[in-house]
Amino acid sequence: MNMKKTFGAILTTLGIIGLIWAAYAFMMGGDGGVVGKYTSVVPFVIGLIFFFSGISLVKSTRDHV
User: pLDDT digits over 12-40, tens only?
Assistant: First the structure.
């Protein structure tokens, strides 16, 4: 497997984890969650950046046969 595709897969996985964590933090709100309802925007944005950069890295990398 190509190194760029591996890095893209890692970024995509980290992005998915960040999005899930941000959604969980948003749903918990101020009820003893790790972050508040509105401060969960930061991990959501970072998760989106990681997710879309990983997807574009995997899509743009060509396999050499």
Answer: 999 999 999 888 888 876 566 667 777 88
Close Cβ partners of 3 (under 8 Å, ≥ 6 residues apart): none
Q: Are 28 and 40 in contact (CB under 8 A)?
A: no
Every domain of the chain and the residues it spans: 3-60
CA-atom Rg of the chain in angstroms: 15
CB 50 within 8 A of CB 11: yes
